[in-house]
Amino acid sequence: ARSGFEEVIFCQGKQTQHLVEIYKHFYEHDSNVLGTRASREQYEAVKEVLPMAQYDEMSKVLSIYSKERELTGCVAVCTGGTSDIPVAEEAAQTAEFFGAKVKRIYDVGVAGIHRLLSKVDVIEDANCIIAVAGMEGALAGVVAGLVDKPVIAVPTSVGYGANFGGLSALLTMLNSCAEGIAVVNIDNGFGAGYMATQINRLAER
Amino acid sequence: ARSGFEEVIFCQGKQTQHLVEIYKHFYEHDSNVLGTRASREQYEAVKEVLPMAQYDEMSKVLSIYSKERELTGCVAVCTGGTSDIPVAEEAAQTAEFFGAKVKRIYDVGVAGIHRLLSKVDVIEDANCIIAVAGMEGALAGVVAGLVDKPVIAVPTSVGYGANFGGLSALLTMLNSCAEGIAVVNIDNGFGAGYMATQINRLAER
Amino acid sequence: ARSGFEEVIFCQGKQTQHLVEIYKHFYEHDSNVLGTRASREQYEAVKEVLPMAQYDEMSKVLSIYSKERELTGCVAVCTGGTSDIPVAEEAAQTAEFFGAKVKRIYDVGVAGIHRLLSKVDVIEDANCIIAVAGMEGALAGVVAGLVDKPVIAVPTSVGYGANFGGLSALLTMLNSCAEGIAVVNIDNGFGAGYMATQINRLAER
Amino acid sequence: ARSGFEEVIFCQGKQTQHLVEIYKHFYEHDSNVLGTRASREQYEAVKEVLPMAQYDEMSKVLSIYSKERELTGCVAVCTGGTSDIPVAEEAAQTAEFFGAKVKRIYDVGVAGIHRLLSKVDVIEDANCIIAVAGMEGALAGVVAGLVDKPVIAVPTSVGYGANFGGLSALLTMLNSCAEGIAVVNIDNGFGAGYMATQINRLAER
Amino acid sequence: ARSGFEEVIFCQGKQTQHLVEIYKHFYEHDSNVLGTRASREQYEAVKEVLPMAQYDEMSKVLSIYSKERELTGCVAVCTGGTSDIPVAEEAAQTAEFFGAKVKRIYDVGVAGIHRLLSKVDVIEDANCIIAVAGMEGALAGVVAGLVDKPVIAVPTSVGYGANFGGLSALLTMLNSCAEGIAVVNIDNGFGAGYMATQINRLAER
Amino acid sequence: ARSGFEEVIFCQGKQTQHLVEIYKHFYEHDSNVLGTRASREQYEAVKEVLPMAQYDEMSKVLSIYSKERELTGCVAVCTGGTSDIPVAEEAAQTAEFFGAKVKRIYDVGVAGIHRLLSKVDVIEDANCIIAVAGMEGALAGVVAGLVDKPVIAVPTSVGYGANFGGLSALLTMLNSCAEGIAVVNIDNGFGAGYMATQINRLAER
Amino acid sequence: ARSGFEEVIFCQGKQTQHLVEIYKHFYEHDSNVLGTRASREQYEAVKEVLPMAQYDEMSKVLSIYSKERELTGCVAVCTGGTSDIPVAEEAAQTAEFFGAKVKRIYDVGVAGIHRLLSKVDVIEDANCIIAVAGMEGALAGVVAGLVDKPVIAVPTSVGYGANFGGLSALLTMLNSCAEGIAVVNIDNGFGAGYMATQINRLAER
Amino acid sequence: ARSGFEEVIFCQGKQTQHLVEIYKHFYEHDSNVLGTRASREQYEAVKEVLPMAQYDEMSKVLSIYSKERELTGCVAVCTGGTSDIPVAEEAAQTAEFFGAKVKRIYDVGVAGIHRLLSKVDVIEDANCIIAVAGMEGALAGVVAGLVDKPVIAVPTSVGYGANFGGLSALLTMLNSCAEGIAVVNIDNGFGAGYMATQINRLAER
Ligand SMILES: Nc1ncnc2c1ncn2[C@@H]1O[C@H](COP(=O)(O)O)[C@@H](O)[C@H]1O
Ligand SMILES: Nc1ncnc2c1ncn2[C@@H]1O[C@H](COP(=O)(O)O)[C@@H](O)[C@H]1O
Ligand SMILES: Nc1ncnc2c1ncn2[C@@H]1O[C@H](COP(=O)(O)O)[C@@H](O)[C@H]1O
Ligand SMILES: Nc1ncnc2c1ncn2[C@@H]1O[C@H](COP(=O)(O)O)[C@@H](O)[C@H]1O
Ligand SMILES: [Mg+2]
Ligand SMILES: [Mg+2]
Ligand SMILES: [Mg+2]
Ligand SMILES: [Mg+2]
Ligand SMILES: [Mg+2]
Ligand SMILES: [Mg+2]
Ligand SMILES: [Mg+2]
Ligand SMILES: [Mg+2]
User: Fold this and answer.
1) Given the CA of residue F1, which atom of ligand 3 is nearest to it?
2) Is H191 in the pocket of ligand 4 (CB under 6 A)?
3) Taking CB atoms and an 8 Å limit, are F161 and H13 in contact across chains?
4) Are the CB atoms for H71 and H101 separated by under 8 Å?
5) Atom 18 in ligand 2: which residue has the minimum CA distance?
6) Confidence of residue H76 (pLDDT cuts 50, 70, 90)
7) Residue G70 CB burial class (10 angstroms; 0-12, 13-18, ≥19)
């Protein structure tokens, strides 16, 4: 990270000992550290050395907050179903880590469109919307059609059969006819959270 | 066709002379004939011999109606955009050919969801809904979520880039989280119209 | 579910504690509950709290029937092989849950076509047919060619090699030349059972 | 070709002048020549030099028969529809060129299974069956289930939408549950005709 | 468009007469009109009726500017090669149509990384970057690594062989390890231009 | 099986108790039983009841031979590498079960073509060749080019990376330019063995 | 090009006027110019201005040689069939342009392996081999198995059906079990020729 | 291996007892043995019999060096990230086994291009470069653009979502616009190391 007091680690696949050293190094030089896709085992090991480390089982985020940070602006994070929440939380906690206020609007998928419609006012107030959905992935396009703010679409691998590991939601989102959508990789909550913060900062500066 | 006075022809790729003979044969034995995916050239050739033949440029349907038929029940045909209308018309005219009343609700795609919502009452009255959409193909799932009647989803090849000739809409529809959807082949208006008629007949008998 | 006394839960991937709460909530408000893709562990946990819960190992259906329901009409459920039965049972039990009588015609795949032909009379009597098949998936098209009722085709992931997790059967069914077929997602017995009930109700009202 | 008095040319994409020379060369050394996928233009050019050349518009076969050959045994060639006939004729004429008697049983696709069933006796008499089908491609598996002779399956590119240029029929055939099927490339009538002749010869020697 | 004095038309595939009417209608009600993917024929027809229509051969943009508009902020549009310029111009002209200043930095692909490096200062000054690239599509990730502003990546269908109509660049961009990238559909310059304007407006308000 | 004293069972995925019953049933009515893809656990259970059952760990074939059978003719089974042997043995033992003599020529892949060339004489003597290969799968085409007997190609899922579970070898074999090849499903040794026996019988009758 | 007196142009898709200017510019500054994938129209236009331009219809190479260059070392270029020659010539002429001697060994595909074997001595003498093949693409692996020099494999789009535009040959080559192969894009003769020259130069310096 | 005192074994999937015998056989006849993709269990078993066997956990290389070998020339091995190191080490140790000096330049991916740029001098000195990268895989093209030596690109399966097991990096590398790249199979460090040695030897002879 270029901003001076935040560092990010992609924990998945890293050997425990190596990971602990990275956390220690960043903690000593930088203070705030965000790790994504961390396992509970990795958490236990880091905590041994850095007891202030926090772990969120849902999002697999393993973070250290030593310097405080004021949150500004607003990013809205929506999900189609409850199974998409882990990815949504990775996005939301990434955005918070980098300084954005986050509103969570979960389980508003298009199969029951009225739940989504009742939340449009809340969504509209955000500077940027993150739309997280698996299976058919139609949420992002519908949200983008309702609101005139940039929508970052996150396809998830939630589903089975012809969803081919998230391909179905990915293609839906790339082909959306609504204006103001761009898409990140399947299950890439971090990427969406990061870009949402960039947009939020531009809006709030 | 088993029902005694309707016959169906898939015109695409058939040699003109061969096609004319089929039309003549069916016309002599059966009376009503529905041809799909007919070219204007094929129409000219058939018309030469059977002047009562009718051709619809939009749907590429080339039909002969000699016996009258009363239309019953109701099938609703919806499209996401205006580019989906040729496929929708193949579906609608197929359903009419086999005896169903059809309501057309076109250009109600999810990028502007309010147009669709204003038509829910009309859609709800049908025995069966045909939802035709390309690109992201989200229309079918949203309709199925709004209405408790069977929805036959028709993905179209309308779009570009990562729609891969209709694959994107096809996968969206197969992965829909809404209840009461089944899907036919890309651009297969005929298949949807046929099955909708079967359902409509069951409802009206 | 909109109908007032049935609720449906997709159990797969839900955390046990969360799932138990949903069952309790639905049971208290609604009476009949259908859960699909439930594990034995999930069943044990629900049963602890709601002892009237029933579990079918084959279909992975975890249901609670407190209000009785009369079954009407008829849905036929056919499979190509015995390995397709779990998906077929999900379909059959879903249809029964929503009020349809079901006839099961299993292991009548096209590699031995005479077994299927001997059952045509039985199949013909149904309002709607669910055809469940993996590998080559040809059953649905053959059935649709034999019977003039709507056929809902369910591809299964049964097979190996170039079946690519059910893609092979899915494509076969989408490309069928027979009239009156539509397709649901790979292994989606629930979706087929739901739509079959909708059609059955229309036929029986 | 190793057998001494037959030569094969794949005409597609060959420059006319080059092709004429190959025909002349083979004609002078060998007598009988089989060219597949020839265009009418190529035929005209070859005929100019070798007036005994024969061209079949349907199969695109451009052949020269100077030495007579007795036909033996029997290969059955079946098709699902009439659009598959060009590929079937490439297969049939290849088999005849290499010395097999051929029985043609066309348009017996599985959507109307009774037409196929009425021909089983004829098919059964052959040493080997070539089953040619596009779209869903189910014909090959059904034939193999009915008859205990080797079936060579030829998927065709006939169809649209999710047939993906013949992929759908190819996968169906590869995944067939029936015993005694093997598959050649999409539209490869030549390959099927050649292998059928090899089998026919073994049976007749 | 919701903003009151801009309307957008996707011209591709629209019938000329129908298109002219839309242009007339929008021109009378709204003033400024942006049409994308217009052919020269469509332009000629529109110009007949609305002589102030302007057409850009490169980008296929067919626009009418009747109300003036001040441009604010800055969007940078980069391309990997010269073949990507048509898509880049669709993006750039869309952004200008909606009120953003645009800087064009073309032909700075990663095969010659120093050309890109020499432009980093210019790129850094923008509120948002649009990175347009075909073939390997690596430009977007490299730019995102160099600059801390949101990058909208546009894969193009430029290339051959294993680029599979833009799939290669699309996957590269979705899998980028750099922070702050999101992706639109293959060749979707319009979508990128629109979202860039949304971000630019947030930054400039 | 139609031939009267052989029965085949696809063991994979069958529940142990169910499987034991099938074996017992077939053993009592028919005598010889061939089971493919059996696990060691399934073998232990069958053996408990039918102690004459034999199990081959390599091929996963679980068979009972009670009636003797004379082997006739010759089928050659070749493999590219040693990892392909399990599939080759399924093929070879299937052919033997149905009455063919089998010659095994293993590990003669094209990366060291001279080993294959030194075996051509042996291969040539067979009525039919089964060529089993993974990874690049080139063995089948090379063998077919060397020998004028029908070649049944079996792609295996051996390999990694861009072999995509056997797709690579499958496509190679389908696209072979040699004459006299047809292909079965990935890893389908049984299918190849069955068809080879059919051909062998025709040659030996 | 960094070497000082050669420049390369990818002509495909470039506008004629633009192309002529590039040729002129390079000719004036650099002398030798290599253009690939040039059309005859492009050639005519360039020749008008630069009469010394040479065009090879087969390879679509449009070149200007003003400074002489001595050829050194040896690169062998092999093809599977005659249809692969255009791609092979692009490779061969690229290698010659950059200073390598080239030996052409065409039409030595693996369906007739003895033709290839008779050329092994010649191939072995080269510093580097370019193996060009479509359809099954097995040539590259067989050559690499025979010779201990680096092999650059070029899959071509020659073929039909399940070759999917060259995918089949590409996968074969990537999965080769032989030692010493690397692969370039489908039909990318230029890329192979360039890398072969790099290797040839290292060997000859 | 042809060179007389090196042998290579692909350990993955080999049965332990069989593997030990191969090692013993090669050790007795040849001295130096390189095994790739060996598990720790395989190592333990080999070591029991051949105590001089060495195992590298990271690269899974299990080797025996009994004859000494002087290293010559230079191959540079670069990686995009730290997760690519296992594949890079397979490449590096293969090159060393066959006699090349290796320089390791790890974790220089394009998301932070300046780290790579600072190493260009070192890379440039090598005879050949191996570029190992997963996810977007852009490293290879950027390196090839910076250096005029042959680049062997190794895509890795590192990543998630739309990387589809390494497909994304593979396509990126195949489509690179830079001059002088060829690609090996996903995760095929061995293949890259072997070919790099061939090139290195040519340069050093
Ligand atoms: N329709 C076809 N499809 C595939 N291969 C063919 C076909 N016709 C001929 N061939 C093969 O192509 C070879 C001749 O190719 P060529 O030398 O290019 O004329 C023949 O020996 C056959 O193996
Ligand atoms: N080049 C383009 N690619 C994708 N979508 C576009 C493009 N140009 C315009 N659109 C969208 O298409 C809508 C208009 O479509 P239509 O109503 O068919 O004219 C606009 O509101 C845009 O959202
Ligand atoms: N390894 C195999 N792969 C594919 N099909 C097989 C295999 N083994 C047996 N079969 C087929 O499976 C049928 C038996 O299936 P089942 O009735 O499920 O036991 C046999 O008649 C064979 O056609
Ligand atoms: N990691 C690897 N990936 C691909 N091929 C390999 C690898 N390691 C060794 N090989 C090849 O496998 C051959 C040995 O295979 P095997 O005879 O099965 O041990 C060697 O000669 C190499 O060509
Ligand atoms: Mg919007
Ligand atoms: Mg509904
Ligand atoms: Mg029917
Ligand atoms: Mg059979
Ligand atoms: Mg950045
Ligand atoms: Mg042969
Ligand atoms: Mg070699
Ligand atoms: Mg270079």
Assistant:
1) 21
2) yes
3) no
4) yes
5) E10
6) very high
7) exposed
Q: How far apart are CA B2 and CA B30, in angstroms?
A: 11
| Residues F15-66 pLDDT 10s | 999 999 999 999 998 789 999 999 999 999 999 999 999 999 999 999 999 8
The whole-angstrom separation of Cα D140 and Cα D135 is 12
Nearest ligand to the CA atom of B115:
2
Which residues are G128's β-sheet partners?
G75
Which atom number of ligand 4 is nearest to the Cα of residue G177?
23
Q: What is the mean pLDDT of residues E155-176?
A: 97
Where helices occur in D9-103 by DSSP H, the ranges are: 16-30, 40-49, 85-97
Ligand nearest F187 Cα, by number? 3
For ligand 1, atom 9: residue with the closest CA: D10
Say whether G164 sits in a helix, a strand or coil.
helix
- Taking the Cβ of residue C185 and every Cβ of chain B, the question of whether any pair is shorter than 8 Å is answered with yes
Distance CA F113, CA D177 (A): 35
Distance of CA C49 to the CA centre of its chain: 27
Mean pLDDT of the D178-202 span:
98
CA A36 to chain H, closest CA, distance in angstroms equals 13
Residues contacting E97, CB < 8 A, separation 6+: E6, E32, E34, E63, E193
What lines the ligand 3 site, CB under 6 Å?
C 81; D 179; F 8-10, 36-37, 188, 190-191
**Cβ-proximal residues to C5 (8 Å cutoff; 6+ apart), any chain:** C30, C31, C32, C67
Which residue has tokens 């039309």? B23
C14 and A82 within 8 Å at the Cβ level: the answer is yes
Question: Do B110 and A110 lie within an 8 Å CB cutoff?
Answer: yes
Residue type, C84: D
| D185 to G161: CB separation less than 8 angstroms, yes or no | yes
Query: Is D41 part of the contact surface with chain F (CB cutoff 8 Å)?
Result: no
Write down the pTM of the prediction: 0.96
Q: What is the pLDDT of residue H5?
A: 63
Nearest to G182 by CA among G117, G129, G112: G129
Q: How many CB atoms lie within 10 A of CB D128?
A: 28
Please judge whether F160 and H13 are an interchain contact, meaning their C-beta atoms are less than 8 angstroms apart.
no
Residue C136 phi, psi dihedral angles, 5° rounding? -80, -25
Atom index in ligand 3 nearest the CA of residue C83 equals: 18
Which chain G residues touch F181 with a CB distance below 8 Å?
A: none
DSSP G54-112: EEETTTTEEEE--S----EEEEEEEESSSTTHHHHHHHHHHHHHTTEEEEEE-S--GGG
| Nearest-by-CA chain F residue for C158 | F13
Tokens at E119, concatenated:
């432009």
Spatial CA neighbour of F41 closest among F72, F69, F23, F62: F62
pLDDT score of D2 more than 60: no
G134 in contact with chain E, both atoms CB, cutoff 8 A = no
Mean pLDDT, rounded, of chain H: 95
Please compute the mean of the pLDDT values over residues D53-64 and round it to a whole number.
Answer: 97
Average pLDDT of the residues in C140-146: 97
Among left, alpha and beta (phi > 0; psi -120 to 50; other), residue D126 is beta
Residue pair B6/B32 in contact by the 8 Å Cβ criterion:
yes
Q: Which structure tokens are listed for D24?
A: 């002349």
pLDDT tens digits along D98-142: 999 999 999 999 999 999 999 999 999 999 999 999 999 999 999
Q: Do chains D and F touch (3 or more CB pairs under 8 A)?
A: yes
Model-level ipTM above the cut of 0.85: yes
**Is G94 within 8 Å of G36 (Cβ atoms)?**
yes
Which one of A7, A17, A174, A186 would you mutate to disrupt binding with H, by most H Cβ within 10 Å of its Cβ? A186
Q: Is F161 on the interface with C (CB under 8 A)?
A: no
Q: CB-CB: which of E83, E158, E162 is closest to G186?
A: E162
